[in-house]
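Need residues for this backbone.
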């Protein structure tokens, strides 16, 4: 039988991970737990960078609950039970999607609402408790392929050597440029995403906003070319909102590409024509944090460099739609698959095959799930016309999301997305193929076959 995810590799490798976000901390945790030496380099000075809310679908919540336990997770998480849908401009309620327990039971996980910072802290604690070293305030100037070992050059002049360098440095990845041997070719999509976190105390002063805060819901407001959503986070001590706005109405400069660190006065954003409820929410957010959606039309073909020693995970491998529901889950799934494969290491000959298996397992899924996020968000920003009328009519009939593997009122393939188990996927590959890359395993298999023949 293949080893479990917490197996200890008998071949100890030195990993340097560039980037300490969700992907970086997750893969650091699973690799350190598997017995490898892991060092994470993060350019920010500490935890706590500006960030908003995350929707945690069942495929991700299953992993978090396994890692930290349900009790620890529920200290900050809010369970999402419904998604009311409104017209962003009139405030009219169009429909509601119920995320009831009977619907999610088949997925094996819950649909949670969390603050990005709360999830990041959980993952940071896991990584350090597993034995990873995490250094903040580190500027990486270059990642250099080596023969055989790659090196990482720091702004201080220090040079680090590793067996494998992992690029977990996000959608504007510097490590990806090394892997592809070319500069980033992303182009603006025309859409800007804003995030903010509102104080619960201020929301409680208004009955309508208080009702939003106290509900276990993720309301979405659908408009012409734009949308707005929000939900409680941090055990309802805060409320996270996100705005999906066209570039021309968002004050976004032509050369802007900042990922969530660009603070923008709300007054700079064209919010005219919004409903009273939307305006109330925005009145509590004097500042928004901006991310521009930059598109890679052809995706990222290669996640591993020519030397086979530098590899990408998370948004460095598959840049995501900012504020999309599934991006964080894909980062954690990457980590689980990578960590499981590298928990089996007994000799170096297994490494190249395991690296390519990681990309083979993850690339098709991340591409398909990214398309789900893009299609669903586009559905929320439709212009007036027959298609939007049809959408509203279908959403108005929606009472419950039935997880049966079919299309769910325009929310394509959610059942399949939610049911996915990253560890099972990696285990299946190892049981079928991976063990044959270890000479000891091949020898044992042949000996077993000979014994069976002899006793037949």
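Answer:
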């Amino acid at each position: 039988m293949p080893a479990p995810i917490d197996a200890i590799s008998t071949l100890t490798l030195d990993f340097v991970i560039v980037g300490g976000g969700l992907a970086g901390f997750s893969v650091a945790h699973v690799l350190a737990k598997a017995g490898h030496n892991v060092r994470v380099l993060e350019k920010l000075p500490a935890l706590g960078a500006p960030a908003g809310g995350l929707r945690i679908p069942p495929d991700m919540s299953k992993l978090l609950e396994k890692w930290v336990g349900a009790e620890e997770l529920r200290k900050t998480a809010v369970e999402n039970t419904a998604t009311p849908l409104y017209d962003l401009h009139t405030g009219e309620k169009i429909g509601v999607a119920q995320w009831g327990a009977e619907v999610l039971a088949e997925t094996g996980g819950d649909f949670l609402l969390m603050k990005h910072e709360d999830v990041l802290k959980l993952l940071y604690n896991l990584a350090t408790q597993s034995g990873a070293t995490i250094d903040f305030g580190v500027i990486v100037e270059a990642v250099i392929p080596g023969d055989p070992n790659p090196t990482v050059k720091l702004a201080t002049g220090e040079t680090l050597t590793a067996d494998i360098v992992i690029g977990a440095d996000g959608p504007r990845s510097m490590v990806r440029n090394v892997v592809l041997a070319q500069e980033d070719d992303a182009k603006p999509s025309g859409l800007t995403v804003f995030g903010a976190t509102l104080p619960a105390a201020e929301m409680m002063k208004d009955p309508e906003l208080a009702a939003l805060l106290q509900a276990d819901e993720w309301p979405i407001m659908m408009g012409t070319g734009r949308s707005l959503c929000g939900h409680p986070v941090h055990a309802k001590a805060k409320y996270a909102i996100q705005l999906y706005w066209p570039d021309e109405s968002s004050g976004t400069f032509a050369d802007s590409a900042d990922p969530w660190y660009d603070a923008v006065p709300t007054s700079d954003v064209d919010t005219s024509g919004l409903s009273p409820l939307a305006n109330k929410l925005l009145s509590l957010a004097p500042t928004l944090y901006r991310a521009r959606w930059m598109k890679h039309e052809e995706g990222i073909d290669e996640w591993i460099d020519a030397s086979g020693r530098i590899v990408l995970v998370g948004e460095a491998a598959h840049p995501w739609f900012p504020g999309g529901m599934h991006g964080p889950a894909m980062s954690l799934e990457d980590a689980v698959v990578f960590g499981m494969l590298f928990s089996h290491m007994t000799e170096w000959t297994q490494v190249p095959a395991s690296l390519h298996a990681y990309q083979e397992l993850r690339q098709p899924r991340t591409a398909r799930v990214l398309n789900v996020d893009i299609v669903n968000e586009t559905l929320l920003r439709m212009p007036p016309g027959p298609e939007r009328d049809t959408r509203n009519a279908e959403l108005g009939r929606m009472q419950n999301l039935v997880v049966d593997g079919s299309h769910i009122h325009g929310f394509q393939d959610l059942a399949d997305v939610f049911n996915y188990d990253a560890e099972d996927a990696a285990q299946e590959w190892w049981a079928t193929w991976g063990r044959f890359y270890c000479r000891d395993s091949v020898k044992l298999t042949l000996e077993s076959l000979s014994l069976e023949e002899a006793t037949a």
